[in-house]
Amino acid sequence: MNKQPLISIIIPVYNTEKYVARCLDSVMAQTIKDIEIIAVNDGSKDASLSVLEEYASKDQRIHVIDVPNGGASRARNIGLSQSKGKYVGFVDSDDFISPEMYERMYSAAEKKAAEMAVCFFDTVEGTTFVKEKDANGSEELLGRDDAIIALTELVISYSVCTKLYRSDFIGSQRFAEDMVFAEDFRFNSELLLKASRVMLIREEFYHYYSREGSITHSPISEKDLVTLKVYDILSEGCADNPTVLKAISDRELMESQKLLDSSIGHDDISKESIRSMLARVKKNKSAIRKNKYLSFFGRIRSRLAILFPGLYVAAGSLFKKIRGISD
After folding, report:
1. CA–CA separation, 174 vs 81, rounded Å?
2. 26, 64, 129, 302: which has the fewest Cβ within 10 Å?
3. Please, is 212 exposed, middle or buried when counting C-beta atoms within 10 Å of its C-beta (0-12, 13-18, 19+)?
4. Tell me, what's the pLDDT at 72?
C-alpha cells in the first residue's frame, strides 16, 4: 500500500506548452520531497500533453490526467478527487514557485495546527519581478474574522495558488464549475467562513506570470460580475459581526462602483446587470463615508449613482461615446 504523501499539488493545464516545463521544474524542485504532482491536461490543443508525459516518465511523483476541455474549475475538481495528500496546493501551469514554498507553508501549518497556510505572490513581467505586497518573512496566526478582513483588504489574495489547505478541511468543498471568473474568490470565501486557524506567511513564494491572453487580461463581460455575488456569501456568513461586515461592505462598494463605471456604455453588459450594480452601490451607501478604497471623486460618483441612477448611466455612456472609450 502506497504511503500517503504529505502534499498533493494540483496543476490544471491548458495550452501552456511554452510555460508548463518551467512550472513543473519549480514544483519538482521543492525542498519538501514527499509530494505528489497531479497535472490535469484540460483538452489542450498544443503540445502541453506531450510535455507533461515527458516529465511524468522521468519523475514518478507526477501523475498526468488527460480530460476533454471543461475549464480550470473542473480540472481542479478532478485533481481534488484524485489527490491523496494530507495537504493540497494549486499551481497554475504558466506560473512558477520558489523552492521553499511548500516546506515553509507545511511547517507553519503543522506548527500551529492551522487549517490552511497563506503566502504572498509577486508578478513576473518579462524578467522583472513586480512586488505586490510588503513581504518581511514574518508569520502570523489569524482567526476566522481576522482572516476574512485580510481577504477583503487583499492581504490574503483571492487566488487558491497562494494557499496550502489541509485536505480534511477542504472535505467535500469543490470549485463552482459554472464560474470562469472569481471561482478562486468563492472557494476561499466559503472555506474561510468555516476556518478557525489560518497561518499567514508574509513572503512572496508564488510567482504569477503576466501574459497576454490570460483571463485577467480579457475585456470586461457579464462573467466578471459574478465577483459581486461572492460578497453575498461573505455577508451572510458574517451577519453577526459588525466589524467584519463593515470590511466586507467597504470592499463590495468599491468593487461595485468600479465594475459599474467599467460596464456603463459597454455593449456586452445588459441593462439588468447595470441595474443590479446600481442596487449594490445603493445597498452599501453607509460604506461611502470613510471608505478607504474610494478616492474623494470615487465617493462623489457613488453618491451621484445613488441619487440619480438613470442620469449617471446616461452621462457615463455619452462620455465614453464622445471619448471613444471601450472598457
Report:
1. 9
2. 129
3. exposed
4. 96
> Under the phi-then-psi rule, with left for phi > 0, alpha for psi from -120 to 50, and beta for the rest, what region is 265?
left
What's the rounded Cα separation, in Å, for the pair 23 and 78?
A: 19
Burial level of 296, CB count in 10 A (0-12/13-18/19+)? exposed
CA separation for the pair 83, 269 (Å, rounded): 39
Which residue type does 307 have? Answer: L
The tens digit of pLDDT for each residue in 116-148 reads 999 999 999 877 778 766 788 899 999 999 999
Please compute the mean of the pLDDT values over residues 254-260 and round it to a whole number. Answer: 96
User: 237, 193 in Cβ contact below 8 A?
Assistant: yes
Model pLDDT for residues 203-250, shown as the tens digit of each residue: 999 999 987 654 444 557 788 888 999 999 999 999 999 999 999 999
Q: Give 160-199 pLDDT, tens digit per residue.
A: 999 999 999 999 999 999 888 899 999 999 999 999 999 9
List domains and CATH numbers for the chain. Answer: 7-216 (3.90.550.10), 219-323 (no CATH)
Give Cα 157 to chain centroid, integer Å.
6
Computed from CA positions of residues 60, 65, 71, 74, in that sequence, does the dihedral angle turn out positive or negative? negative
Element (H, E) at 242: helix 242-263
Please report, for residues 25, 217, 248, 286, the alpha-carbon distance to residue 148 in angstroms, rounded to integers and kept in the order given: 33, 26, 8, 20
Residue 88, C-alpha cell as written in the block: 493540497
